[in-house]
Amino acid sequence: MNKITNHLPTAELQAIDAAHHLHPFTTGDELTQKGARIIASAKGIYLKDSEGEEILDAMAGLWCVNIGYGRDELADVAARQMRELPYYNTFFQTSHVPAIALAQKLAELAPGDLNHVFYANGGSDANDTNIRMVRTYWAEKGQPEKKTIISRWNAYHGSTIGGTSLGGMKGMHEQGDLPIPGIEFIEQPNWWAEGGDMDPEDFGLARARELEEKILEIGEDKVAAFIAEPIQGAGGVIVAPDSYWPEIQRICDKYEILLIADEVICGFGRTGNWFGSQTLDIRPDIMTVAKGLSSGYAPIGASIVSDEVAKVLEACEFNHGYTYSGHPVACAVALENLRILEEEGILEHVQNVAAPHLAEKWKSLEDHPMVGEAKIVGLMASIALTPNKETRASFAADAGTVGYITRECCFGNNLIMRHVGDRMIISPPLVITPEEIDILIERARKSLDEAYEKVR
Ligand code: PLP
């Protein structure tokens, strides 16, 4: 048997991959007919594949490599921590310096009184924690019936049983008989696709008020929490109209519903602030974090919770935790990542340099015949592909196909850009420079032109 290294021919790696590696969100045909793209190394915002092609990664991996690839400091910290204390748990009244230091740092960065950190391995299991946490919270307060969680259709909150249930992806629910009981949904604030003739702000208000209607339908004494991303990421970078979040906040306050902001994508500078909740002026009781917390260099996630939620959980024994909750290597890497984000002024770079430049260039794509709205907040952005800008029509039966074709054209032009139905999305590393943004836009435009030739 050949030793598997980067030096094997691509076709051989692809064949072994297709034979033995079950991939997330990929069909067997995609692997056997075309083969996976094998990524060999990465530096800054560029990936290098097994054919030596340099690919501009406008998705920062899966929305996570905020500081860019190839930062030795994180590798050094990981190696040092592995030598000193590779593992110890945080169960049963034990702790260690990386977990303590990271919790203190997150409490400092998080808004309001979100001062307490419960560690997980990623975003999905942090959201699983949240389900148990909010239900335990209300039960401990003498309201065990207050356990329904309201989410939104087309949301993505992970792939575990809990994460998939909280998400509003119907295709995911169909696999595994989900959601679990006690999860309810309202519609998303996607004006472009669903706003019809309504003014965007009226539409935002109407969508927010669906939360109130749902609470009244279920009974306020039965609703534990509402969960949402400040800006819906994997759903297609859906930016709600300005009227939406203030109304959601009002409703959560009025009915004493815990607000869970899923910051897995929006956190750690993506929107220009540490958290999307700060950008959108949201006051969550719990935030889910992962991805940019370690810039993807080590798997780690967390629930950051308010003083009040922590007080109730600490008064009982919250019988929950993962073997790797607060893994010392992951915590040390995350801490170093936060140091780099802070000391190198990367959030300021996003706010003052990268986001304004990208916004101008991204908006310019609206002159393309196939592009409807172009949306952007910080360094997360989307365009809606449409055959008719006036009616905001979707490509109907071809929705998804058109996005897929466009994504394939991007791939051909060495640009990684994702599609969700007929929306194309980006979320580049936060360190991207104006010159690199120009290259991104040039490749995106070329890909759109090529896709347009194929579908018009
Ligand atoms: N929540 C959101 C908003 C996400 O975008 C994701 C992943 O894309 C998750 C949760 C799940 O995180 P993970 O894949 O780390 O489990």
Give the helices and strands, then pairings.
Layout (H helix, E strand, L loop, with lengths): L9 H11 L7 H7 L4 E5 L2 E4 L4 E4 L2 H4 L8 H13 L12 H13 L4 E7 L2 H18 L7 E5 L8 H6 L3 H4 L9 E4 L4 H4 L5 H19 L4 E6 L15 H11 L3 E5 L13 H4 L6 E4 L11 E6 H9 L12 H16 L2 H19 L6 E7 L2 E6 L15 H12 L2 E2 L1 E3 L2 E4 L7 H22 L1
Parallel strand pairs: 3-13, 5-6, 5-7, 7-8, 8-9
Antiparallel strand pairs: 1-2, 2-3, 4-10, 9-10, 11-12, 12-15, 14-15
Helix pairs in contact: 4-14, 5-14, 10-11, 15-17, 16-17
The site of pyridoxal-5'-phosphate has 17 residues, from helix 6.
Organism: Aliiroseovarius salicola
GO molecular function: transaminase activity
Keywords: Aminotransferase, Pyridoxal phosphate, Transferase
Explain what this protein looks like in three dimensions.
It is a single chain. With 456 residues, the chain is of the alpha/beta class. Helix 16 (401-412) crosses helix 17. The chain contains 17 helices and 15 strands. The chain is globular. The strands form 3 sheets. The protein has a 7-stranded mixed sheet, with helices on both faces. The chain has a 4-stranded mixed sheet with strand order 1-2-3-13. A 4-stranded antiparallel sheet has the order 11-12-15-14, with helices on one face. Residues 62, 122-124, 127, 156-158, 163, 229, 233-234, 262, 264-265, 290, 301 line the site of pyridoxal-5'-phosphate.
List the main descriptive attributes of the protein structure presented here.
single chain; 456 residues; alpha/beta; 7-stranded mixed sheet; 4-stranded mixed sheet; 17 helices; globular; binds pyridoxal-5'-phosphate; aminotransferase; Aspartate aminotransferase family protein; PyrdxlP-dep_Trfase; Aminotrans_3_PPA_site; pyridoxal phosphate
